[in-house]
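Give me structure tokens for this 325-residue protein.
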Amino acid sequence: MLAISLFSGGLDSQLAVKLIQEQGIEVIGVNFRTPFFGGGAALAAAARQLGIRLEVQDCSQEYLEVLRHPRYGYGKNMNPCIDCHGFMLRKACALLPELGARFVITGEVLGQRPMSQTRSSLAAVEKLSGCRGLVLRPLSARLLPPTVPELEGWVDRERLLDISGRSRKRQMELAQQYGLQDYPSPAGGCLLTNEGYARRLRRLLALAPECDAEAFDILRHGRLFSPGPYLLAVGRKAEENQALAALARPGDYLLKVRSHPGPLGVLRPLPSLDEAGLEAAAALVARYSDAAREPRVTVRVWQPGGSERLLEVTPLKAEETPPAL
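Here you go.
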């Protein structure tokens, strides 16, 4: 028999897999990647540690509808946790016939998350998934109503667990018992829960409500400014400059002081940009360069695959600098 694991690579999802593997059931890990979570080297390493096949699917564009219009609202920041879990379970359940699997497991723990893992939230998530009865949560199963896999005898309910609450003591003990190592911390996996990122995201969506998934990459790097209808990311170190250069896309402007060391800026018009806006962005990039005290500096401005131009600007003074997002 085969089951699908909604697999994040975290400790709880790894333990859920181990509990089902112990009952002689093969597990395939499925991970859904968006601009905000999913994928990564740690995920693949966790799957190898468990000896399971891993399927990673990008659902970025489809996920934007969940982000923009969550039926159950947001958590503390921009995290639509209930709708998000329901979306991922619906995607996983749709894979059951394709992969020849019978049911889906998750690492959810009753009472661990205040928004998405209460009894009512778990029920709402399962309703959103469209596959009631086929979602098994091995870590808390004995505290929840029996599922189809339990009622049909595919799994032994008595060999599942009754973990609840925010304490991770039992999970840590199980990790040692199973020899699981190098698992990620339970926090920080989703950018939407991060207050700073959520603030940047709100600004982007206000400027470009119908933007595509590729627009979100600029939110992850450097200082971010938006004094007008555009976003300007300014690198803080060499690694960020390299990352910003790599993500620049057609329509963006790249800015760098010509005569002195300094950061790279990537300017993304949303949707357009006038000359005054371009000059303001150049002055802001110059403010963070070694030419910040010069009366006038030359800033190179170019677009990916396009021609280059030069702008003469006065670097902004610290007191003139708009607040970063």
